[in-house]
Each structure stands twice: as C-alpha cells, then as structure tokens.
C-alpha cells in the first residue's frame, strides 16, 4: 500500500548529498537482512557494532552535512501534539536537538552508549540506552516515535504504538542513505491499519504514519 498523501518538497539544497555508496553499503545489506528476518540476531549485532565503531567521529561528520535533519523539522510540522516523544537510534543527537525544541519531554534512545555519550545535554531530554527491538515502554504507551536514519523493528513499533500513535520515519539523504527505507515501503510494512503522509526536505524524505486500529 503506497503512501496516501505526498507533500511538495521543502528546502531544496543547491549542493549534492554526500556519496555514501548507499545501495551496497554494509548497513543497507544488514538492514535488508533484518527486514527479511527480524530474528537475525547476528545481523542486529553487526549493525550495532558498525555504529559503535563510528561513534567517535559521528558528530564531526554529521554537523558538516547541510540539511541533515531537515526532514525531521518538516515531518514534525504534520504531527499531532503529544505529551511526550520517543526517539530511536538517536546517535549523537542531531534530530534530538530539534525534538527538544518542540516542547514535550523527549526520551532519546540508542543501542550504543558510545553514541549517547556524544549527544548534547538538552532541556527536557533523557537519554536512554535501548535496543529498538526491546524498547522500555509499555504496550500502546508511546504517542510519537521519531527516528532519523534509524533501524526499524516493525514488530516493536506495533507493540508500543497504540491507536492514535504516530511514527515519524526520516532520512537525511533519501535513497543515498545507507539505512534507507522508502516511505512507500514503510507504509507497506505497517499495513492497512495506518494512515500515511510523506514529503521531501533537504536531500531526504519523511513519512508520518498514524495508527487507526
Ligand atoms: C545511521 S545512525 C543514525 C544516528 C542519528 N539518528 C543520526 O541521524 O545522526 C544509526 C543509529 O542507530 C543505532 N542503532 C543500531 N542498531 C540499533 C538497535 N538495534 N537499536 C537501537 N539503535 C540502533 C546506531 O547506534 C546509530 O546511532
């Protein structure tokens, strides 16, 4: 099932995105493997280690990328107001800084403590080490789940997002993002119990899905 509503692009950059050889990147290959088999623990571990190794240089690299979190800003414009926000795969906090400005408390999570220690201290933000496959939240309790360039676990999303729960899934570079899932594919994986809208911003895209049943 494709995305139901697409918005016009906003903030179109005049410089190309970085060349990350995304389609053959080891993270893309690993992503496809865990999508095909969410119980492939070896690949999940490989993904965690890949980013643990990149943690010391992550902020330096990310802050050099113009429009890096533009999709988060754009997608948030369409989200309904919530009492708190959860971020997954927050890395060193490039999207967290935007989420902190929204207002409600933010729980920003990542499997790698090495990433979390590089994230900035922000008002209303608690950083929590957590694997996306085992989020420390009750069934149906999360009102808004956000990720920028994260790794998805759709089973866990279905558990912690109840009716009315929102998922904002963003990438910085669209198909040029190693951990890339096109919005239409996200909509497809979520299934018929979700409404979806999507858009482009900067070099990336975002999808906002709301659970209806
Ligand atoms: C491409 S980075 C994105 C980081 C940040 N959101 C950004 O855009 O700069 C992917 C992030 O997912 C995290 N990650 C990898 N496996 C994970 C898992 N099983 N659960 C939660 N986070 C995971 C990595 O540690 C890393 O911080």
Please tag this protein with its features.
eight-stranded mixed beta sheet; methyltransferase; 19% strand; globular; EC 2.1.1.-; 213 residues; binds S-adenosylmethionine; Methyltransf_11; transferase; methyltransferase activity; alpha/beta
Overview of this structure, please?
The structure is a single chain. The longest helix has 23 residues, at 41-63. Helix content is 31%, strand content 19%. It has an eight-stranded mixed sheet, sandwiched between helices. It has a single domain, classed as Vaccinia Virus protein VP39 (Rossmann fold), CATH 3.40.50. The two termini are 16 Å apart. The chain has helices at residues 26-36, 41-63, 70-76, 96-102, 113-116, 154-160, 183-190, and strands at residues 5-6, 85-87, 106-110, 125-129, 144-148, 166-170, 194-201, 204-211. The model has no long low-confidence stretch (mean pLDDT 96). It has 213 residues and is of the alpha/beta class. Helix 1 crosses helix 2. Bound molecules: S-adenosylmethionine. Residues 44, 47-48, 51, 62, 88-91, 94-95, 110-112, 115, 131-133, 148-151, 179 line the site of S-adenosylmethionine. S-adenosylmethionine binds at residues 44, 47-48, 51, 62, 88-91, 94-95, 110-112, 115, 131-133, 148-151, 179. Residues 86-153 form the Methyltransferase type domain. This is Class I SAM-dependent methyltransferase. Its EC number is 2.1.1.-.
